Amino acid sequence: MTTTLKPAAATAATPVRRLGPGALVLRQGRLEITQFLRSRESVVFTIGFPVIMVLVFASIFGNEIAPGVRYTQYFITGMIATGLMMVSFQNLGIWIPIERDRGVLKRYRGTPMPKWVYFAGKVIMVVAIGIAETALLLAVSVALFDLQLPSTAGRWLTFGWVSLLGVTACTLCGIAISSLARTARSGSAVVTPVALVLQFISGVFILFTELPSWMQQVAALFPLKWMCQGLRAVFLPESFGAQEPGGSFELGRVALVLGLWCVIGLMLCLATFRWTTKRDG
Q: Where is the signal peptide (predicted)?
């Protein structure tokens, strides 16, 4: 009787290659971006809406609101801030409840993947889409409405930290507010009205100082108003700072409020985020 010996290579178990944290985050980020781009509604509403609003409002209103400052310049800065809020706060507040309702979050929690990787993937998606959306808005505004880009490194630096703090605060708040939606369908009903109200009271569509004083005070409690104000310091002349409620762009206060909202948003996320629906327990 002849015994056939199998090669050691055939009998040895094939080692499983485990991805490191960095590779996991990048893979999750690519997955989130792919899912976003596959949703036509998300792409059109999140990226297309700010561009459409700029095309409509900037074409209709071309008057000056201050010496050397046209309404178009003012409105575009507000729409950049709005676009960043939509891709972070509004997009996450709507889509996370959908994933929770479909059991996607429950399956994530049951895998060996660290839970923070899921959120890191969301952050990568928000940053990537936010950069693309902002670049598109700036390109359209420069090409069609003669928007002047920042001419100094200092203004570009301000543009960077205002956008970073604003997106961080809105991302954390979007994750937190996603827990208010009981079902996938209710996510949009919870988040969209909040986003629209914030746009109107934060001086996106209307000159902020023309709003009622009580409305200005309410808007000052939330990040969008300060994002708009910080971006006005980037794209509008320094002289326009005198038109602000505080008599200047108050960049120190902008940084303080946005930083405070990052802390508040993180605390709300830790206290409220749910991986499963109430019916799942």
A: none
